[in-house]
Each structure stands twice: as C-alpha cells, then as structure tokens.
Amino acid sequence: MKRDINSNGYIFLYSTILVVVVAVLLTAAALWLQPYQQRNKENEQRINILAAAGIADVNKDNASQLFEQHCTASLLLNEKGEVSDEGDLPLYIIDNQVSVIPMRGNGLWGPIWGYLAIAADGSTIVGANFDHKSETPGLGGEIVTEKFRHQFSGRRFRKDNRYVPVEVDAIIGATKTSKGVEEMMDKTLAKYLPYFEKR
Asked: What residue segments make up the domains of the chain, in order of their start?
C-alpha cells in the first residue's frame, strides 16, 4: 500500500525523525567541541592572569607553556584568608612574587570581569586587566585598553594596616561602567584582604 506523503501522519513522522536526527548531530558536535572549548577557555584565563602580572607577549600558542613556567602556585582560600582545599577564592602566585586574583562585577549593560595583580607586600597593585560582555565600544568598552588599566599600577589599597578603597578615574560618558569596575575591585579586595593582611 502506497503511503500518502501529503497526509498529516506522514508529515508528523517525517518531522519527528528529522528533529531527532538533527538533535543527535548537534549533541555529537557539542560533545566533540567541548574539549576544544574548555582548552580555549583555560588559555584565555592563563593569558589574562599573566598579562595582569606583567608577563608580556602571551598568546594562545604559548599561554600554556608560559603559565606553567611562571605560575609557581595555584591556591584556594577560605573567607579567613587561609589556604584550604574547601576554599572558594582562587589565587595564583606568579614567579613566587605576585598574587593574581580574579574579579567579577556588573557594568552598564552586563557582566564585567578581570584580574588584579598584587605585589609581594600585599598592599600594592602591580597590574590589572578587564573584559566585558556588552559594554559600549568607545565608552564602557574602554576598560580593556592599556590607558585604563595603567591607572592601577602602583596604587596601594592598604596603608598603615588599613584598607583604602581604590578610586577609578571615570571614563567620560561611561560613569556606570567605571563605577562598576570600582565596586568590583572593592568587593574583591575585601574578600581577599584577610590573606593579604597575613603577608
């Protein structure tokens, strides 16, 4: 008996098979790409950590090698600033001198993030870098530029054993993003302060 290809049953069956086949192919592609995506994510993190610490000429091709060469310790801290396997505050030691900590916050249009490098004295910022998801190019998007990042080098966030909030020179026309960076830095440094107070 010849099947009527214009019948509702045939169309439904054909559509169901097509959807299943496409879903299987997409799932297989996602699983196949997952290791590559994870490797790219790890490389991007390594590049950002090393860049904040002042390591030059890091790219996706040499990030893994340079990170292994320069990162002398990768730690987890608890809220008391103690190294703990159960801690949730990551910290990276670069060349046995510089501590690099990750930051996350909110800009005008979405999340902003970055890394802050702290000198061995536990009080002075060595470097910083930032990134964003959707800040306006030419305005809030300027947080990724060297000019913006450079303002933090040499800034002290602890004086006379007291915490001193880091003030951010606002980007003209991007007050909300600049404020977001300032709040992100203060919130992050407050979490890590117990660790740096022990230095």
From this structure: 72-197
